[in-house]
Write a structure and sequence with these properties.
The complex is a heterodimer of chains A (660) and B (159).
Chain A (H helix, E strand, L loop, with lengths): L1 H19 L14 H5 L9 E6 L6 E6 L4 E5 L21 E2 L2 E2 L5 E9 L2 E11 L4 E6 L4 E7 L6 E7 L5 E6 L17 H4 L1 E9 L6 E10 L2 E7 L7 E7 L8 H4 L5 E8 H9 L4 E13 L4 E14 L7 E7 L2 E6 L5 E6 L4 E6 H9 L3 E5 L2 E4 L1 H4 E6 L5 E6 L4 E6 L4 E6 L5 E6 L4 E6 L11 E6 L15 E7 L6 E8 L6 E5 L1 H4 L24 E5 L2 E9 L2 E3 L2 E6 L3 E8 L8 E5 L7 E3 L4 E6 L5 E6 L12 E7 L8 E4 L3 E3 L1 E2 L1
Parallel strand pairs in A: 13-18, 35-47, 36-39, 38-44
Antiparallel strand pairs in A: 1-2, 1-34, 2-3, 4-5, 6-7, 7-8, 8-9, 9-17, 10-11, 11-12, 12-13, 14-15, 15-16, 16-19, 17-18, 20-21, 21-22, 22-25, 23-24, 26-27, 27-28, 28-29, 30-31, 31-32, 32-33, 35-36, 36-37, 38-45, 39-42, 40-41, 40-43, 43-44, 45-46
Chain B lengths: L1 H28 L3 H6 L26 H15 L18 H4 L2 H9 L1 H7 L1 H10 L10 H14 L4
Helix pairs in contact in B: 3-8, 5-6, 5-8, 6-7
The chains are: A mainly beta (660), B mainly alpha (159).
Chain lengths: 660, 159
């Protein structure tokens, strides 16, 4: 305790000195003396929340603890990860298959947790691939990517993966409109207006197993669909999408897509769309998209190419879609906990319009329209508007909510988070961010039951916040305590990739379901070795299969002979451990892919094509015991045509015969 | 300067008050399993029975061949990588005579409560100095560990 006190005093001195430093606008000024105690999670203690954060251009999803800001795990999703063998092992390669073949990288922008009754249920996390449009489902029992589905008729899958209040659907709107996949795409780019379409995909989610299915797509006019949120409570059954580039420009969008005073928020009645679908109003369209599923039983992924999607036309089928004018290239489009208020954030605007769901409904029934845009009715701005937050700051982007009727909006241009009251639309508080905040999230802040505890700002610019690391810097997140009337900055922490959306979920919902091992009895991998007795080496033509086991601290077999140049060697390594946190790694010299990292009870396969005659060491890469350095072996590679018999042994007394 | 000092002490004091409060609260909630165990009285350790859920295991006079057969299956998958059936040491000691050297409760407690036993049992600690690899907890069910015990007895000649 004494030491702890000294530590606190030291921190207090540092922060208090910060308070009295002369430099105005120094970031230290913004930190109060009790910040350290608010974020201090003592060694061995747990954080109160998990923070699932998009990895942006890393393609992955990272998991932090809050309030400590400690990084726990980077979950590989859309990019290969040699550290974990993801995308390199034979079992995980199919996860990254697409209609374009194997794609090793993507750009994961947004994270959504699965919901039941409008609040997080701790089952799954979803992420979107922005570049080659896909949606991924991550299983929160294993923190592994369980499923990836590709989206046809899309380009730049940005307004996704937003979720309805009981995870009925994950929604994905295309940011870049493109000609649909079944149309002739060999058209002049300047024919945007005529040939380019925007599609909105509705992916259903299996209630128990989470299985993804591209239920239908709604084809819309060619604009840029940016972000979206589902209605909740009274507005459950509706979805709201922000759109920009209603100018329908295809070049120099920076200027050409910013001409109009107002773009749109699209209000979409998906329950109505379901009715049309049931009534057979959809058109079957021939497309090609990959659907990849990882099985916990076989520890293997399979990829399937699907060839059909049902498309509903927003122009033909009335009363699904309505446009609402929204000032200046709206970005965020967020729905408050009650479901009544829809906050549009024009990223070039100096005000925040708040729309009312009830007013939208009466505008639709009284046809209070201002003409049409590409066949879709445009509701009169005033008929949908609840009110505007005047002069909140510059460049509003994203909004989440607390449980006291307040909204928190990030402002990129004026670099601040602004707290305002939803009912009276008055600004209550503002805090600077360091620097230029993009996304923000509040604990359970997009649900029906927000927890007014923490807000994290994900800043787009880092500059001088940390010790410099050359031209390339980590990204910078900032944690604010929002439990009081005033927001209080309490921590900076660096993040991987470029975080966009993130979610903060109570640790209670996830930590107790976390899986510790894969049960060896339930391992149905086709090449499993359940015990050393089942290890063997076999040859099928030029394919050599090595059934290997790993346990502290030896590999079986660990002396392998009879491999020849021209062979494809498959190491199928089963980790026989049945205790938590005892992975084994596997690597062999000259392998052109990566290592394997094999969890207890799991089987993973590394493909190896030796190109030179010689002796090749292999070893366990993950420190496993005091005898870890001994956990190794050799493979002898002979010239093609050699008659060295195929064999694999461990120790003098445990020969493993080669079988035919 | 005086003002600064006063403010500084005030900051420190308020800081300590807040942190002490939250600290005691935190110790109460997530104590790790490890801490829980080491806080028990070490002198209460019974080297004959070991520590764990098994206080009395009834052995039949004769071997239960069916159980032993099931036990062999468990051995093949989860134990054979480190233990031989002879007295030869591989990673861990050979099993010959183990069912005569140890009480059945000790064996089943060690199988199912491996880490705590390794931390407390003087003979296991001596063994660890020789083997240098902590026996892994292989997540055997109670039933499986009983089967395994029967297989050990069979290996030791019980008929």
């Amino acid at each position: 305790m004494k030491k702890f006190n000294l530590f606190l005093i030291a921190i207090s001195i540092l922060t208090t000195v910060g308070l009295f430093s002369c430099k105005p606008k120094n970031a230290g000024n913004a930190v109060d003396g009790d910040a350290a105690s608010k974020v201090y999670v003592a060694p061995g203690k747990y954080d109160e929340f998990y923070n699932f954060v998009s990895g942006g251009f890393s393609g992955q999803m990272s998991v932090y603890g809050l309030p400590s800001g400690r990084l726990f795990r980077v979950i590989p999703v859309f990019s290969v990860d040699p550290e974990k063998g993801y995308g390199y092992s034979e079992e995980t390669k199919p996860m990254l298959n697409t209609s374009h073949g194997f794609v090793p990288w993507d750009d994961l922008h947004h994270v959504q947790m699965s919901k039941t009754n409008g609040d997080y249920d701790g089952k799954w996390a979803f992420g979107n691939a922005n570049n080659t449009p896909r949606i991924a489902r991550i299983d929160l029992k294993t923190f592994r990517t369980a499923e990836i589905i590709e989206l046809p008729n899309s380009g730049g899958n940005h307004s996704s993966p937003f979720i309805t209040e009981n995870t009925e659907y994950v929604v994905a709107g295309t940011r870049f409109s493109v000609p649909t996949d079944d149309a002739n795409g060999d058209v002049p780019i300047s024919s945007y207006k005529e040939n380019f379409k925007g599609t909105l995909s509705f992916i259903s989610v299996g209630k128990e197993d989470g299985k993804l299915n591209l239920a239908f797509q709604i084809v819309c006019p060619g604009v840029n669909f940016d972000l979206s949120r589902a209605g909740k409570g009274k507005s459950h059954g509706w979805f709201f999408f922000s759109c920009y580039n209603t100018e329908q420009a295809s070049t120099l969008q920076e200027v050409n897509a910013s001409q109009r005073d107002k773009d749109f928020i699209l209000a979409l009645n998906w329950k109505k769309a379901e009715e049309y679908l049931k009534a057979g109003k959809g058109r079957k369209q021939s497309v090609k998209y990959a659907h990849n599923t990882y099985s916990d039983a076989t520890h293997s992924a399979t990829s399937e190419i699907l060839t059909e999607v049902t498309v509903l036309d927003s122009k033909e089928l009335k009363d699904i879609c309505y446009f609402i004018p929204c000032p200046k290239s709206p970005h965020g489009c967020d729905v408050d906990p009650s479901g009544e208020y829809i906050v549009g954030s024009g990223k070039l605007a100096a005000l925040i319009p708040v729309f009312s769901f009830d007013k939208i409904q009466s505008a639709i029934s009284s046809k209070s329209f201002d003409g049409e845009f590409e066949g879709i009715p445009v509701i009169k701005y005033e008929s949908a508007l609840y009110g505007e937050v005047k002069k909140p700051g510059l460049g509003p982007l994203h909004t989440e909510f607390d449980d006291k009727g307040n909204a928190y909006t990030s402002f990129f241009v004026s670099s601040e988070v602004v707290k305002w009251n939803i009912k009276d639309l008055k600004v209550v508080d503002r805090v600077p961010t360091y620097y230029s905040v993009g996304h923000l999230c509040v604990s359970h802040g997009d649900t029906k039951n927000p927890k007014s505890k923490y807000l994290v700002a994900y800043n787009k610019i880092t500059k001088d916040r940390y010790l410099p690391t050359g031209p390339e810097l980590s990204q910078s997140a900032q944690l604010y305590d929002i439990s009081g009337d005033k927001m209080q900055l309490i921590l900076d922490f660096p993040t991987i990739g470029e975080p966009h959306y993130a979610q903060i979920i109570s640790a209670e919902l996830v930590k107790n379901i976390s899986q510790k091992i894969y049960k060896i009895d339930e391992n149905n991998h086709p090449y499993v070795s359940k015990g050393e007795k089942e290890t063997k080496v076999t040859r099928e033509g030029n394919k050599v299969h090595i059934y290997m086991t790993a346990i502290r601290s030896h590999l079986t077999p660990d002396n392998i002979e009879g491999v020849k140049i021209g062979d494809e060697v498959y190491f199928h390594v089963t980790n026989l451990e049945q205790d938590w946190d005892v992975p084994h790694g596997f690597a062999i010299k000259g392998a052109s892919n990566a290592e394997l990292l094999i969890m207890p009870g799991e089987t993973s396969t590394l493909k190896w094509i030796p190109t030179k005659v010689g002796i090749y060491p292999m070893y366990c890469t993950d420190f496993c015991s005091a005898l870890h350095q001994e956990m190794s072996g050799y493979v002898r590679v002979s010239p093609s045509g050699s008659n060295v018999p195929l064999s694999g042994v461990t120790g003098n007394t445990a020969p493993v015969p080669a079988t035919k | 300067m005086k003002k600064i000092n006063q403010l500084f002490y005030a900051a420190v004091i308020s800081f300590l008050v807040v942190s002490c409060g939250s600290n005691t609260q935190k110790t109460e909630d997530n104590k790790t399993a490890q801490e829980e165990k080491t806080s028990q009285d070490p002198s209460s350790y019974d080297p004959k029975r070991g520590t764990g859920k098994f206080t009395k295991v009834d052995l039949g006079e004769k071997l239960d061949a069916k159980m032993a057969e099931e036990g062999k299956k468990v051995y093949d998958v989860k134990c054979s990588a480190c233990h031989k059936l002879t007295d030869e040491k591989l990673v861990g000691p050979g099993w010959k005579g183990v069912s005569e050297r140890r009480a059945p409760e000790w064996i089943m407690n060690f199988i199912t409560n491996t880490d705590e036993m390794l931390n407390k049992d003087p003979e296991l600690q001596a063994q660890l100095e020789i083997c240098l690899v902590r026996m892994p907890n292989q997540s055997l069910s109670d039933e499986e560990s009983r089967h395994l015990l029967e297989y050990m007895r069979q290996n030791d000649g019980v008929k």
